[in-house]
Write a structure and sequence with these properties.
Elements lengths: L1 H21 L12 H10 L11 H4 L8 H15 L1 H4 L10 E8 L5 E9 L7 E7 L15 H16 L5 E7 L11 H16 L3 E11 L1 H12 L6 E5 L18 E6 L7 H18 L6 E6 L11 H6 L9 E6 L1 E6 L2 E9 L2 E2 L2 E2 L7 E3 L5 E3 L1 E9 L2 E10 L4 E7 L8 E5 L2 E6 L5 H11 L8 E7 L2
Parallel strand pairs: 3-4, 3-5, 5-6, 6-7, 7-8, 17-19
Antiparallel strand pairs: 1-2, 2-4, 9-16, 10-11, 12-13, 13-18, 14-15, 16-17, 18-21, 19-20
Helix pairs in contact: 2-4, 4-11
Length: about 475
């Protein structure tokens, strides 16, 4: 009898083990993949124009929901190891000090001078950081990239004002324009510089990733006006001063979750500055009225002022805001920013974002053609995404040209035990459970370099023209 009972117990145990494995088609990984391989992948995608995905095996490394936080921390440490050479170019300076005339070599064979300044004592989560762009402009006849005295004086003024703004504690990144002969802040080299500054300030622990801002005066105002919307998902707020662009030079849609303050003098008529500010006010007021709590903005048209205005309001206004890395509603344009000389578009130099917010975009076409004047014309597509729990609604249409392909939606703040549903222009295109995995986490970290945008799952959506 005893032998029979032992045999029965043994058979029950075998049956339980068999049922467990037969009903569990996906093995949940309990081990982190080899550190060296992950570091090597991250190293291979630094400062590259195109993002290559990790090895397919990483996407099969399924993780539990409970492990996502631990894996984010682990991958962030591997990302930091891959960035050690870049980090070595970010100086370690003491509180209430600055380092001047530091040098970076940009991907476009340009050199970048910059100043880093720390004001006050470092907060627990890192300093609020300001990217502050100086005024000046274009000097095509300059003998060297850093020839004209005017841009040197404007850089000096930006450093002086950065010390005086009432925003301590704060960290300032104050770049010198890379090439006065071209003299614009939105060229591809400067774009790479801003992202490098953002990433290294966060990697070093100096900056709070959710309290980084961009501002500037005059030509720097135009630069922050163009780069604020283009990189709105990186910034907590943006503040151009004395440099308001017209409504067609930057998309208002991108500022849905990024507060925006525009300051200009009422008599600053040159290049349509005050007219541009008034036009933006009209559209921002309308957007804010229709979208409660979104499109936070202020348009400060300063009475009795011309091009010289009160610059001291902007930084304290910006500092009150904190970025939300994963808002329920996102809107943006997929568009290109062109390198220009005297506002003429080059035939080869333009940049689209590879991702915005929590959307990967480099699967979309560029839709490049020439306009009637023979100048480069690139396609533009609008996106609006609304998330309600596990349901995503995407609306999208072509604004200029024909842009098609696919996007990836990175998932966060969803219940992974339930299906995720995606609608595209009213049609259900996805309805299934999604499994968190290491590959998507590596991919999203490589795409954004952002500790708060390491996403554990994604859904691919076809975008038709």
């Amino acid at each position: 009898m005893r032998t029979r009972n032992i045999l029965c117990i043994f058979l029950v145990v075998v049956l339980v083990i068999f049922l467990h494995f037969s009903c569990s088609p996906v093995k949940v990984s309990s081990k982190v993949p080899a550190d060296e391989n992950i570091v090597n992948y991250f190293s291979s995608v630094l400062d590259t124009a195109n993002l290559v995905n990790p090895d397919k095996a990483y996407y099969k490394e399924i993780i539990s929901v409970e492990d996502i936080g631990v894996r984010r921390l682990s991958l962030w440490n591997e990302w930091k190891k891959a960035n050690m050479k870049r980090l070595a170019t970010w100086p370690s300076i003491k509180e209430n000090t600055l380092q001047d005339s530091l040098l970076w070599y940009l991907p476009t064979d340009k050199k970048a001078l910059f100043t880093i300044m720390k004001k006050g004592n470092r907060p627990k989560d890192g300093y609020p950081m300001f990217i502050n762009l100086h005024g000046g402009g274009t000097f095509p006849d300059a003998a060297t990239p850093w020839g004209p005295d005017e841009n040197d004086r404007e850089w000096l003024a930006a450093k002086y004002l950065s010390q005086k703004y009432a925003d301590s504690p704060s960290l300032y990144f104050i770049p010198r324009m890379a090439d006065d002969r071209r003299g614009r802040w939105y060229h591809s080299g400067e774009q790479a510089e801003f992202i490098r500054a953002w990433q290294l300030a966060v990697l070093s622990g100096d900056a709070d990733p959710n309290k980084i801002y961009i501002e500037g005066i005059s030509e720097g105002g135009y630069g922050s006006f163009r780069m604020g919307p283009f990189f709105a998902d990186y910034f907590a707020a943006a503040g151009p001063m004395a440099g308001a662009s017209n409504i067609n030079e930057a998309p208002i849609e991108n500022m849905r979750n990024t507060p925006f303050i525009i300051s200009v003098g009422e008599y600053d008529f040159a290049y349509g500055r005050v007219d541009g500010a008034r036009e933006w006010k009209k559209y921002l007021d309308s957007a804010a009225k229709s979208n409660s709590g979104q499109f936070i903005h202020e348009v400060d048209i300063q009475s009795g002022r011309g091009h010289g205005i009160d610059y001291y309001k902007t930084a304290p206004w910006l500092k009150q805001f904190t970025r939300n890395p994963y808002p329920d509603t996102v809107s943006f344009q997929y568009y290109a920013v062109h390198d220009t000389v005297f506002d003429k578009k080059d035939d080869t130099s333009f940049t689209y974002r590879k991702g915005f917010g929590y959307i990967r975009l480099d699967g979309l076409s560029h839709s490049v053609e020439k306009d009637q004047d023979g100048l480069l014309k690139t396609g533009i597509r609008d996106f609006y995404i609304e998330k309600k729990g596990n349901v995503y609604h995407i609306r999208s249409f072509n604004r200029i040209g024909s842009v098609s392909g696919f996007i990836n939606i990175y998932l966060d703040k969803v219940d992974f035990l339930l299906p995720v549903t995606v609608y595209f222009n009213g049609e259900k295109v996805y309805n299934d459970k999604v499994k968190p995995n290491i590959g998507t986490m590596m991919e999203s970290l490589a795409l954004f370099g952002d500790p708060d945008r390491i996403f554990a799952a994604k859904i691919r959506v076809k975008i038709s023209s």
